[in-house]
Amino acid sequence: MPRTPSSVETVSDAHEGRLEHALWQVNRTLLKALDDELNPLGLTMSQFGTLNRLAVHGPRCTADLARDAGMRPQTVAQSLAPLLKAGHVRRRGHPVHKRVQLIELTDQGRRVWEDADRRAAAVERRIQEALGERCHQTMCRDAWKIVDAFGGTAHEAAGGPH
Q: Model pTM?
């Protein structure tokens, strides 16, 4: 007589078949792959995001970096400390608002960011190879639809891997 699945197995199968679960697994897998790529550079994902925002948008104050990342300024300040210590970024005065300090990439920081960005691009190529070009484009478009549906913006994600 064929075995019928228990209610626990049915719930488990239903859960694992849901898109949110698949996306959660994709997120965990990609974060690990990116961590593996960035770790030799001594960077965390958050630090890479900060370097990325500075490389793309130029000097920013801590409040702007926090807003871009959807984080608290205190959290960004903690992420900045090792970047400052390593010489990847530096502080300089704002040309208009004298009490505001801007954070900018150093030449060394730009080189580290370029290496990190190449490593993140390698992860992206692996995704593209796994999916194929057409599916990759569709999935990317659909992922942004999900971000939009939940009130996120491309601006918030601009600092992350691309």
A: 0.79
